[in-house]
């Protein structure tokens, strides 16, 4: 199928994406979720993963959500990241209409995000949603990349470099800790 954009109209500015097909589709229940979901966008950009991002709502645009979920796989999408707050039905509703892996991101709103967390994670047997922590957009992106890396050596290599950079960051921070002085600190 020839296309390079989602058929769902995006409320977000287009960055172009160099005409690539999206491997990851990020869906959020409202553009009010964007300040959190930008962390997923940034992480995917950093790891050079083509992605699309759209706002669709399980409650406000149910037909569009179902169509999106049914068509995503044929459009070349390999992983879906779905974020929602409050009575967060979006990830589960998408998972009900696709065999693609769906990663759910509970967005903190009411009840410190516990409402969204439980709505997303407590799926019936047969329809899993791999749920990250509340506002865990960055981890959702990394988990998506881990899935893609299983069948793509170039992505696996970039992921491996990223993980190594995390290790270096902590090692550097630990060395800097050595310079912090307290009267009773022994190292
Ligand atoms: C959810 O309701 C959205 O995912 C968002 O987190 C929350 C509030 O939406 P808005 O009223 O800001 O559009 O469906």
Describe the structure.
- The protein has 6 helices and 5 strands.
- It is of the alpha/beta class and 187 residues long.
- The longest helix is centred in the C-terminal third of the chain and has 25 residues, at 153-177.
- It starts with 23 loop residues before the first strand and ends in a 10-residue tail after the last helix.
- The structure holds 5-O-phosphono-beta-D-ribofuranose (RP5).
- 5-O-phosphono-beta-D-ribofuranose binds at residues 28-30, 32-33, 57, 84-86, 107, 109.
- Annotated CATH topology: Rossmann fold
Gap from first CA to last CA: 61 Å
How is the main sheet built? Answer: 5 strands, parallel
Radius of gyration, in angstroms, nearest whole number: 18 Å
In spatial order, strands of the major sheet run 2-1-3-4-5
> How many structurally independent domains?
1
Content of β-strand:
5-15%
């Amino acid at each position: 199928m020839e296309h390079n954009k989602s058929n769902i109209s995006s409320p977000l500015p287009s960055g172009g994406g160099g005409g690539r097909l999206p491997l990851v589709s990020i869906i959020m229940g409202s553009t009010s979720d964007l300040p959190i979901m930008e962390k997923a966008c940034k992480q995917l950009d950093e790891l050079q993963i083509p992605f699309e991002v759209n706002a669709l709502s399980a409650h406000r645009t149910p037909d569009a959500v179902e169509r999106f979920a049914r068509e995503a796989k044929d459009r070349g999408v390999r992983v879906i990241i779905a974020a929602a707050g409050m009575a967060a039905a979006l990830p589960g509703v998408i998972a009900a209409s696709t065999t693609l892996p769906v990663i759910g991101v509970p967005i903190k709103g009411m009840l410190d995000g516990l409402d969204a967390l439980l709505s997303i994670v407590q799926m019936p047997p047969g329809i899993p949603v791999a749920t990250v922590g509340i506002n865990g957009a960055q981890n959702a992106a990394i988990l998506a990349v881990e899935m893609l890396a299983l069948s793509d050596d170039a992505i696996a290599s970039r992921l491996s470099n990223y993980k190594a950079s995390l290790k270096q960051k902590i090692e550097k921070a630990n060395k800097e800790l050595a310079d912090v002085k307290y009267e009773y600190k022994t190292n």
